[in-house]
Each structure stands twice: as structure tokens, then as C-alpha cells.
Amino acid sequence: MRALGKLTAVEAKLFLRDPGAAIVVLGVPVALLVVFGLVPGARQPSEDFGGKVPLDTFIAPLSVAVLLAMLALTMFPTAMATYREKGVLRRLSASPVPPVRLLTAQLVVNLAAALVVVLLIVGFGAAVLSMALPANLGGFLLVAVLGTGALFSVGLLIAALVPTGRTAGGVGAAVFFPMLALGGVWVRKEDLPSFLQPVADVLPLGATLNGMRETWSGGSPELLQLAALVVVALVCGGLAARFFRWE
Fold this sequence. Notes:
By secondary structure, the protein is mainly α.
């Protein structure tokens, strides 16, 4: 445990020293919240959102879901593939510290970054923009945990299959952007064609976002959303464990 703690501390320092990480992890979600939150009418009930406040029922969940997806699908697999490319994992395999601890340390750092920014989004939104907190907190936490597991399992599968960090970034982006289009991010699920709306609840990012939207306004996540997140986590996690290579 002591070795894991030291390795996690080192990975955290490397994460914080990368200015791009701070811009992506902090800047993008907070910018989404602020820019869209200051749009006229965003903090007032709207008929387009079923009489609910857009900031609470769409913009805030969107900021959280996009943050999780960026960490899981781009930053995490890129870091792991870069370590493999540079031989870090191979050298660790010959040391007393098993490579799996590096994987664990990377997961801990990324999950900690996600937690900090989620708290920042919720705290900043509540204090500055008068944003309401999730009305169904238990349901929100359930969706957040399952969504994080599903998204990071996809990121782990990417890291397991690609040979280099640059390739991991490209593959992660190729997975991330279609989820934005089809998951209800660029266009709300309700505004998608009817045949695409179930797709938005099956894709990991869409299921996370739409489940958070439901719980933020006091409802419950749909069974399809929860089931999709569990299936993705199990399938992608299992495939990643099967094909992951340290060299």
C-alpha cells in the first residue's frame, strides 16, 4: 500500500504539471457551465424544458458528463499507451513494483480529478449561478458511479488495444465525438429523431448524461440507461483485461 501511495503521488504531480490537463479538466466543464448558464433564460423555467430550469436540468449534468468522458476516453488511455510506448510498463514488470499498480495509480488520479471538478461545478453553480443541487441525490450518485465505471472501462479497452499515445488520443476522440452527437449532448435527446433516442440512452456518455438529467430534476434514471452502463462496464472491462499488454 505504501508503494501504491507513493506511485499515486508521483502520478498526481505529473498530472498537475501538465498545463493541458488543467485546461481540459477544469476549463472546459466550468466554461460550459458559465457560458451557457449566463445565456438569457438559462436560469428561468422554460417551456422547451418542460417548465424546468435549463441550467439545472441540462447544462449542469452536461458539464459533469462531458468531464467524465474527456478524462476516461482521451486523457486516461493516452497516458497508459504512452507509458507502454516508452517502455515504462516493461521496466516496471522487472521491478518489485508490478505494472498493475501504475494502472491503479492512474485510475485513482483521474477519478480524484473528476471528483474535484464535479464538486467545483456543483459548488460554483450553486454559489454563483444559483443552480439547484440534484433533487434525487441517491439516483444521481448511482448514475455517476455507473457512468464513471462504463466510460473508464471503454478508456481502458482503448489503452489495451492501441500501441502509442498518439493513436490512443485519436481513437479516444473518434469514440468521444460520435457520443457527443448521438448521446444527447450537441442535440438534446428529445430533439433527436425518434429512432435515435434509444441510442442516446445506450451509449455510455448519453446514458450518463440523460440519467443525470433525470435525477437532477428529481426523477429516476431509466432502467435502459442503468442496464446499458452496467453492460458496457462489464463487456469493455472484460475485453480490456483479456487483451491488455504491458509491453
